[in-house]
Design a protein that fits this description.
Helices cover 75% and strands 6% of the residues. The protein has 541 residues and is mainly alpha-helical. The protein has a five-stranded mixed β-sheet with strand order 2-3-1-4-5, sandwiched between helices. A hairpin with a 2-residue loop joins strand 2 and strand 3. The longest helix is centred in the middle third of the chain and has 64 residues. The protein is elongated, with a radius of gyration of 40 Å. It starts with a helix and ends with a strand.
């Protein structure tokens, strides 16, 4: 019977889920944290994991990235023993994005790569597309928007016409953000044409995503979409068209406590005010960022804040303030650039080492495969009779034990036929050993033609052959061997040597007993009885 604590846990999880859907972040975070505590006290692992993932989500949306990363590690520890799954992939994707935003590229890359590998293991192309987007976002923050765009386009192609509104919103918003990142990376570098091309791509993505964002109805996606499109239009100089999008994004971000997004929009509105020569309004947006949140000072957005604050102070003539923000901007940019270069270096070294290890492993596998093939070839050679191409006694020793055991365990019938060429010594004496060898080769071929591929055929010794017929009862084996005997008797042996005639005496023994030695002994006795009865016949044990 549920206790008060379990009932409260259930209620907290429900309210946290509802808060996630309604984007009421503060309430959702409080309920998820309470659910986490209750689930841990009760020892309810699945509920604790769900509460943990919700807490991570709310911290992420609020822009509390450092808290989110620390909590994510704890939740991952709980989830990994349960194996790969879409929820773990999603958690890793969030963590990768947050870490990259903070400039912790090692964590970002590690999580993105793990997410990608898990998605491949799951074989779910939708999860894989989301993982590719995360990997691309990580590369964009590492200063490689070109690789990022390639990965994101690969993700879009993966789901193509089957993409849901959610998947289209993720991919198109990421592509828009990446094109914007490419612009910011190249601005003031003399690559004006490339900058304008990046903005035009960003504009295309920004306009394309809006109907999908409205269809999805997810409040953060709508705010991000408006923010991206507003920023693109601002950079293109379309201030009148940009402003409604930016103000709508800011209103939504402030209402829902999307603090990091609100800070980004404030920076863009400050840039817009500067472009409109409205310095007081520009400063108001800069100060709003500093008053409303501190999370930006540990993130990529801090660069934007110091850049626009530097421009405001310079326009105002406050050179000390301008220098302060310029130095802070340069310090953060150097720190981030060094982190990017170190991460890229480790990544490419890891890639090189992985490629070298893979090449060495491939070479080792090829050697093993070649050795295995050679071993199998040698085994096949030593198990074959060189004259007839049939198996020999080693072949029987290698194959018979497993076949006998299988037939016995499954109560399957099995019959063994011992076949002897009549008066073979006389054939050798009268027609020569070369003709005798040719007779054995012809007999082997007739034996193949009158049996199945699943039957074991071997030259047992001299002029004796052995046929093991699994799944064959005695009566059916008798019919098979009688047909073989008639084929041999009717064969045109005269083509080998004038006056040559060949017949067979065949003895049959059927299991049980499931014993190779006993079956051969009984078949041998039946074969000698066939000879005593006049040869050229089949006898049953």
């Amino acid at each position: 019977m549920p206790t008060a604590l379990t009932e409260r846990l259930t209620q907290c999880l429900k309210e946290a889920r509802d808060a996630q859907h309604e984007a009421t972040l503060e309430l959702g975070l409080a309920r998820a944290a309470e659910a986490w505590t209750h689930a841990r006290q009760l020892g309810f692992l699945s509920e604790q994991i769900e509460a943990g993932r919700l807490r991570v989500y709310f911290h992420y949306r609020r822009g509390e990235l450092q808290e989110m990363l620390e909590l994510s590690q704890e939740v991952q520890t709980l989830m990994r023993p349960l194996g790969a799954g879409a929820p773990l992939c999603e958690l890793l994707r969030w963590t990768s994005l947050a870490a990259s935003e903070l400039g912790d590229f090692d964590t970002g890359l590690n999580c993105a790569n793990e997410c990608h590998e898990l998605a491949r293991t799951l074989g779910d192309k939708r999860v894989l597309a989301a993982a590719l987007n995360a990997l691309g976002a990580c590369f964009e923050r590492m200063g490689d928007p070109w690789q990022a765009e390639r990965l994101m386009n690969e993700a879009a192609a993966l789901v193509h016409d089957e993409a849901t509104a959610y998947e289209r919103v993720i991919t198109l918003n990421n592509l828009c953000t990446t094109a914007l990142g490419e612009y910011h990376l190249m601005r003031d570098s003399g690559h004006e044409k490339a900058c304008q091309e990046a903005l035009q791509r960003a504009l295309h993505y920004g306009r394309e995503v809006r109907p999908h964002a409205r269809q999805l109805g997810e409040l953060y996606a709508l705010a991000l979409t408006d923010s991206n499109l507003g920023e693109v239009l601002l950079l293109l100089g379309e201030l009148g068209e940009a402003e409604p999008y930016l103000r709508a994004a800011l209103a939504q971000a402030q209402a829902r406590q999307f603090d990091a997004l609100a800070g980004r929009v404030h920076c863009n509105l400050a840039e817009m005010a500067l472009a409109q020569d409205d310095l007081p309004r520009a400063w108001s947006h800069v100060l709003a960022v500093q008053d409303e949140t501190t999370v930006l000072f540990n993130s990529y957005q801090a660069l934007r804040l110091h850049r626009v604050a530097y421009r405001c102070a310079k326009a105002e003539g406050n050179l000390d303030e301008a220098l302060h923000h310029l130095e802070a901007f340069q310090r953060l940019e150097r720190r981030r650039s060094v982190a990017q270069l170190m991460a890229q270096s480790r990544f490419f070294v890891s890639r090189l080492e992985a490629e070298q290890a893979r090449a060495a492993a491939d070479q080792a596998h090829r050697k093993v495969d070649a050795l295995t093939a050679r071993t199998q070839e040698l085994e096949a050679h030593v198990q074959r009779d060189p004259l007839t191409g049939l198996g020999n006694r080693r072949f029987l020793e290698a194959r018979m034990p497993a076949l006998i055991m299988d037939c016995e365990q499954q109560h399957r019938p099995l019959t063994l036929a011992l076949i002897d060429a009549d008066h073979f010594k006389r054939i050798n004496d009268q027609h020569g050993h070369a003709i005798g060898d040719a007779v054995l080769q012809q007999l082997a071929q007739l034996l193949r033609e009158n049996t199945r591929g699943s039957d074991l055929l071997l030259r047992y010794g001299g002029e004796e052959f052995l046929a093991v017929l699994p799944d064959t009862v005695a009566d059916r084996a008798f019919e098979v061997c009688e047909r073989l005997r008639q084929s041999v008797e009717a064969h045109n042996w005269q083509d080998l040597s004038p006056g040559l005639e060949v017949t067979l005496s065949i003895g049959l023994a059927s299991a049980p007993p499931y014993s190779t030695d006993l079956l051969i002994s009984r078949a041998d006795a039946a074969m000698y009885r066939a000879k005593h009865l006049g040869r050229n016949r089949v006898a049953l044990a």
